[in-house]
Amino acid sequence: MIEIQNVKFNNETRPDSGFELLKLEVLFARNIEQDITSPHKVEFYQIMIITEGDSKHTIDFTDYPYGKNTIFTIRKDQIHRFFKSPGTKGFILIFTEDFLASLLSQKEVARSHELFNEFLTTPCINTSDTDFAGIHDLVKEIEVEYNENYDEFSSGIIRNLLHILIFKLFRVKLKQGVSFTQHKYVSDFIAFQQLVEKRCFETKKTLDYASLMGCTPKTLNNICKTIVGKSAKAIIDDILVTQIKRLLINTSMSITEIAYTSGFDEPTNMYKYFKKNTETTPEVFRQLHS
Questions:
Q1: pLDDT tens for residues 30-39?
Q2: Which pLDDT value is given to residue 57?
Q3: Nearest to 243 by CA among 220, 266, 273
Q4: Are strands 40-42 and 5-7 parallel, antiparallel or unpaired?
Q5: Domain spans of the chain?
Q6: Class for domain 5-175, per CATH?
Q7: According to the model, what pLDDT value does residue 136 have?
């Protein structure tokens, strides 16, 4: 069993930029230290644009088939893997949160996070030829600015083009029937989600998270039900199960070790919890994804 790779942002050509643009076919041909065909956790945001080819991409244990005109939005701290296909061409835009936040207002950054949040929308976007053409033109502008015109103005220009690209993706999703709420609770929900991701091995109790957020369990449940239609406990369970899956697939830890690591007093309790939430056992899940 291979330990999970943790991939940090590392632009060797422009280390202080906080942004990088790569062609997928060039990335697939690179001889790099990280094996991108194995599951790896990224510490940056990505937008992947497919211009040619058919294959699939895995994001947190879900396989998404893709073809021409497909776009993926992947947030930092997600685990994903590539499947190298000789016919696949496209672009991958890589950027740090600081790069995004350096130009946008706090409200715009929060709104941008919605596009990358798997609780609020799917990471896979299939676009029409017309919509894709506009997005592709923007990406080509970014490519020219990044590879050919790079100077003191380029960073600001790229940020603005990326800002436009993100809002074009919002528009595509809205046209496809996805509803993005501008409710005041969105930022509270994202704060809760991030808190659970950091502390789910410590506590699974709604009361504890409500206390950490300075609200009542009733208010926290209202926040979650308003934004995603689920209870706070359901969100905690979803996140904890995902973290357990990550340990099962990407570490050599035994089931017993994983149970104790994820905060269970007894391995049998984790076994029952996992089966209740996934309808399979930890052993079977590991075998299916090994």
A1: 777 677 888 8
A2: 95
A3: 273
A4: parallel
A5: 5-175, 186-288
A6: mainly beta
A7: 97
Q: What does the block give as tokens for 191? A: 């704060």
Which pair of structure tokens corresponds to residue 261?
């690591």
pLDDT digits (tens, 9 = 90+) for 93-117: 999 888 877 766 666 777 777 788 8
From 54-63, 102-111, 192-201, the region with the lowest mean pLDDT? 102-111
Q: Does domain 186-288 have CATH number 1.20.1270.90?
A: no
CA-wise closest residue to 46 among 27, 15, 69, 20: 20
C-alpha span between 35 and 23 (Å, rounded)? 17
Cα–Cα distance, 254 to 282 (Å, whole number): 10
Q: Are strands 19-23 and 40-42 parallel, antiparallel or unpaired?
A: unpaired
